[in-house]
Amino acid sequence: MPAQQKKIIFCIAGVLSFACALGMAAAIGTQLWVKGTILCKTGALLVNATGQELEKFIGKIQYGLFYGERVRQCGLGGRPFQFSFFPDLLKIIPASIHVSVILFCTVLIIFALVGAGFFMFNAFGSPYETLHGPVGLYLWSFITCCCGCLIMILFSSEVRIHHLSEKIANFKEGNFTFKTHSEQFANSFWIVLVCSLVQFLNTLLIRFAGFEFPFSKPKDSETTTGAVDLMY
């Protein structure tokens, strides 16, 4: 492939990787990871609410990695309550998983920026043979993509398996019990998926530029080695 086309491909990959880092940095600071509704089970059972009456006992909840907000509905109107994971909810949430999600988000941003820098360096500079060259580009893209997948797996398990929304909804609730009525992942969570797909696309762009995958042996060397072995 001509050098000019390679530069264009590397520039596209660098811009995508940089946009991925910016998107993740913005996503971390929002509370748009999970949105849902919570049912005041105790209040609904007291009045035996059914049908449209049940709507008076359904509140809202949304949260991110650091803070969130819930609207408590127990038949007397909505009462908003804002909370933060650190240090308020640290005792009731799976702290190790939550901290791991934040850590992998940080690693994803760092390696996405590093990858963007190396893509631009390979586009406008003279790439080295090792980490500045195609092997390094594959490495940064692979690590970033893996971090994105781990973030989605860990956060999904925290929300679904450990019932994070219910734990938050019942935080500091003595007399009332809340149950998750509906739950869905919001925009910031899907940004992680987009970033993982972008890094996978970058890997294909590197291959499209004409570079072999790392650790792959060219056919010429194999045939040459075979011929030498036959000589002996």
TrEMBL record:
Membrane topology listed for this record: Multi-pass membrane protein
One Pfam family named in its UniProt record: Clarin-2
InterPro entries assigned to the protein according to its UniProt record, in alphabetical order: Clarin
Subcellular location(s) of the protein: Membrane
Record carries keyword Membrane: yes
Keywords on record: Membrane, Transmembrane, Transmembrane helix
Record bears the keyword Membrane: yes
A GO BP annotation: equilibrioception
GO cellular component term, pick one: membrane
Transmembrane segments: 97-123, 135-155, 189-209
Family affiliation: Belongs to the clarin family.
Designated name of the protein: CLRN1 protein
